[in-house]
Amino acid sequence: MNRRQLLGAGAALVTTSAWGQTSNMGLPEAAIMESAATQTPIRPTSGPDYTPVVTLNGWTLPYRMNGNVKEFHLVAEPVERELAEGTTAFLWGYNGQSTGPTIEAVEGDRVRIFVTNKLPEHTTVHWHGIILPSGMDGVGGLSHPGIPPGKTYVYEFDLTKSGTFMYHPHADEMVQMAMGMMGLFIVHPRDPSFMPVDRDFAFLMNAFDIAPGTYIPRIMTMTDFNLWTWNSRIFPDIDPLVVNKGDRVRVRVGNLTMTNHPIHMHGYDFEVTCTDGGWVPPGARWPEVTIDIPVGGMRAYEFDAMHEGDWAIHCHKSHHTMNAMGHDVPTFIGANKSELTRMIRQQQPEYMPMGTAGMADMAMMEMPLPDNTVPMMTGWGPHGPIEMGGMFSVVKVREGIGADDYSDPGWYENPPGTQAYEWTGELPEITSNDSPKTQLSPRPEGNAKG
Ligand SMILES: [Cu+2]
Questions:
Q1: What is the model's pTM?
Q2: Could you give all domains of the chain from N- to C-terminal order, each with its CATH number?
């Protein structure tokens, strides 16, 4: 019995027989994803056209048509999730992963979602933001009884509006969300000419408290989490958002943590075009470079990718761009540790005092760490350590990237004269030809007097 089986042993004992029964009853196949890599999005082969969403380090759940109904099969179960290379967590999720697969459909579709419970306790699925009949809302005890271990429930409803939604349990919610149970639910407009984009990225923010060297989240933690994740993934292993220059780009972000996250993207200004309540009319939008995503809320923003480069995208709470670390640590900035260092080196010659000039040296050092633990600030760029972890990635805007190509194009090479440099006493000679041109950004209409 491996660790995964051990963790799910309670459920497995119950479900083996039930699974055998239900699998003969015409259920759609429950697809399983083994990989934590971003999967190429699935373009629609019938029905209205849309640009499929790219779930960062995630995937989209396949469906089958049964008459006019789109049928999906979610399986709630214990999973092993690779948070970053070398760090795995034992979580609860759906269809082999946490976060669960993205469900994608089209406005006007009728969907039938089979939910099989392979957890050791009951669960439900709440379809956050979707307008549906009360009895389909997935609040255990209120909408319907909890789904017992080993049982499959059916949710069925019409998608009356397009937009940006999510799903998560509404049963033993504190535990099941702390264990990683959640997913995205994207409903595309029936009219392909409404709010079209070339690239449509999506991720859910979640958080875990996993002690260094261990595998299972501490479910009682209320606010002091140590792993701040996008789709249960941490930098440096959150995939980049790869964009072709000139693309219209949408980024959809949901927050199922216990605190708000101000998401900041460099290189652009942009507008919120959609929330989990619906599309924002053009006249009600305003420009931003940071969007605060409230707890239990979603925001989608859009921009035209005119500026080539490698642009950071991250939570602006600086503790959320660090990986596992202790917070009850004294501050040593400015402290004189030379006498202490001398004494310790008599016993341990390699001892290095740390933290007296800041903590940047932590990103450079190869410190021994417990098993299954990534360094707290890590990730190397083309010019040195990036000194970030957790909720951080890079938007990579390049010329000539194919429509369905999301592979990492590598690091951006700054054109001559466009990178900060060391002052050595005189300015380099720049001819007017290769000097970067300054262009004024266009003002919004109706603001001519500025
Ligand atoms: Cu944050």
A1: 0.86
A2: 3-318 (2.60.40.420)
